[in-house]
Amino acid sequence: MRKRLRITINAPFVLAFVGLCFAVTLLGSLTGGKSTRLLFMTYHSPLLSPLTWLRAFTHVLGHSGWAHLIGNMSYILLLGPMLEEKYGSKTLLTVTVVTALATSIFNYIVFPNIALCGASGVVFAFILMSSFTGFKEGEIPLTFILVALFYIGQQVYEGLTVNDNISNTSHIIGGIVGGFFGYILNVRSGRKRF
């Protein structure tokens, strides 16, 4: 007798994050971008405003349009389930929150005239984090070095030579956060095995 196929929720954080990003982008489309500017985009605004601090975290949910959303969610859905299975939902939430705050603070200080929205920093955090999945203590995976060179190098190059309204610095910061978490988490899990 054949078993029935069923759909499973294999990565609750990733699916919830993708669902929230979709809902926020839909809301942005329905409001002509007003909801995105108000709640899901970080920019230089008064530090005493509660919305400034809310947007420091929620800007990763907002996207400038459907193409922007689909590009980011494709990577999140590709890498996220593997990372969530290895590290757990709470860890991915922590990486996402730290990435959101770090990119927001950097953007606020260094680029006061530029607004920032989207999950690309989180995508780069996941990319660099995933390159540590085969990590052993005392080693640095060649895949991590190559991913860092290709992805971070491309962002530095494009940041210096291409004027395309993409925040390459949020990609770089996200990559740094993901590399840091990937390294730290794998060093800890390597020690637990011994």
Give a structural overview.
By secondary structure, the protein is mainly α. It has a single domain, classed as Rhomboid-like fold, CATH 1.20.1540. The chain is built from eight helices and no strands. Helix 4 packs across helix 5, helix 4 runs parallel beside helix 6 and helix 6 packs parallel to helix 8. The protein is globular. The chain starts with 11 loop residues before the first helix and ends with a helix. The mean pLDDT is 86.
For the structure shown, list the relevant keywords.
globular; Rhomboid-like fold; mainly alpha; 194 residues; 0% strand
Work out the radius of gyration.
18 Å
> What distance lies between the first and last C-alpha atoms, to the nearest angstrom?
43 Å
Backbone structural class: mainly alpha
Number of helices: 8
Please report which band the strand proportion falls in: under 5%, 5-15%, 15-25%, 25-35%, 35-45% or over 45%: under 5%
Helicity level: 55-70%
Number of domains: 1
CATH classification, class level: Mainly Alpha
Shape: globular
Ranges where pLDDT stays below 50 over 5 or more residues in a row are none
Report the biggest beta sheet as strand number plus sense, adding barrel if it closes.
none
Write the topology of this structure.
Blueprint: H1 12-30, H2 34-39, H3 50-58, H4 66-87, H5 89-110, H6 120-130, H7 142-161, H8 168-193
Helix pairs in contact: 1-4, 3-5, 4-5, 4-6, 5-8, 6-7, 6-8, 7-8
